[in-house]
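Re: that chain you flagged

S.,

Sorry for the slow reply, it's been a week of failed gels. I finally had a moment to sit down with the sequence you sent. For the record, here it is as I used it:
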Amino acid sequence: MWHLLKDMRKKDKGLAFLAVLLIAGQVFLDLKLPDYTKEITVLISSESNTISDYLLSGGKMLACALGSALLAVIVGYLAAKIAADFSHNVRGKVFHKVFDFGAGEISKFSTSSLITRTTNDITQIQMLVAMGLQVMIKAPIMAAWAIVKIVGKSWQLSVLTASAVVLIMVVIGTLMAVLLPKFKTVQKQVDDVNRVTRENLTGLKVVRAFNAEKYQEDKFENVNENLMKTQMFTMRGMAFLFPVMIFVQSALSLGIYWLGAKLVDDISIPLNGTMTEIFTAIGSRADMLGDVVAFNSYALYVVMAFVLLLMIFVMLPRAQVSAGRINEVLNSDIAVREGKDDGRQTEEKGSITFNDVSFRYPGAAENCLEHISFQVNQGETLAIIGATGSGKSTLAGLAARLYDASEGEVLIDGKNVKDYSFRGLYDKMGYVTQKAVLFSDTIEGNVAFGEAAQAITEGDVKKAIDISQAQEFIDKMEEGLYRHIAQSGGNVSGGQKQRVAIARAIVNNPEILLADEPTGALDSKSSHQVMELFQKLNDEGVTVVMITHDSHVAQCAKRIVDIFDGEISERDRKEETL
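Prediction finished late last night. Pasting the structure tokens below so you have them in one place:
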């Protein structure tokens, strides 16, 4: 938790310091009220007072109460602002950290867990910060100040108050020891609910097509019930604390008045004494009665401080778990880090070289690629074929630096991909992923997605759409280029998504085009048109590397390499390969 709080912005730290000062002022005003209560109690016991004396003491009490309420409102506003700024800052850090993650880090945490950590976990900490500034700071100040006030008043009453405090601490400590492991489980179970919900929504068509609604409902009910049972256990434990606190508070108040009454009765009034002795005794009894009333108020403030801390104890364990989960993300090592070369000063252009490359996924027992070596020169088209799971897409990922080679090196334009900055590397290439991914934006926004070495104009977008054969279906849409695409391209077909993805890959005039199954969602006519596109790009000097299962697509390549069992061999004769 501290690792997150210490990175709070200077402005927020200044506001937090101001809030502490205001809280101290609020506690000072609150603890003045028992003094005025004692004063009024003593006035009632005396016959030589006027109504103005009562009004003066009552006016002071009212002023303190109003001042405390005003300071509480200001502190509440400052706490809410600090907590909101803090969560905004942390959420931004987590988001940008995840943006730096490679495929290995994403698979380590899982998508559903990263979503939970970015939303629910940060919200837990935000609530703790907001309440902590108002309660966690106020409670110790109030308890310490109230204890100073009551020390020396009466050792009997002090022992009674201390016993109540010890009892409260024992109960809280015992419950925390029992409940803390459960709070750690809650956040993991929230991940499970998020994962199952996400799977169900993503695969809704498949679920309905196979009549698997009951299976999915049972699956969700299982994780949902586990979460409910754990939360019920923790909430019942926390609910037990409040009756205990109320009982201790009431018992303490009753004990103070009972013991105080006995102390007052012990002060005897000498009926046969002088008038001075009689009035002195009466005054002593009035002072003692005032002390008992004030002591009760101070003792209740001490207990109230622990009641306030109880509110924090309810949130603290879960927030601690959330902070640990967030720190796991922020402290994760990034496997793929960018270099400094902007890619502008290269002797070669459009070449890809694999020098004895081997690759093993994180946590895997063995390499999925072994000693891969080949070179593609500018203007060539290379088709990579092989069985499912043979490592074809991994090759493309190594060239695009989604992963780093375990052994050997991958060169782009004669330079190791590790030496390039990400922007310098991706300005050189376009990438068509195996699964076409579109974003919630217009068609134009999806094609012109991201930044390039040169600004992408509307003319560039139209040219890329025309080359990718996407113009045909766009012309049939009423909004044309400005047709809104739903999240993940839910309102267009697979072939239409594929063609928009191809347009996005070529809009920035790349030197190299990596295409993973570029025709997988296209009909034969569209596939033929895409091959003509690749041929045209070759003629313009663009290097094309495509991964495919389609023999007709592979025939259009100038060279073909075959991956089998993680090893690669180049075929001289297309007929032999096909």
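What I noticed first: Residues 348 and 414 are 6 Å apart (CA to CA).

Talk soon,
D.
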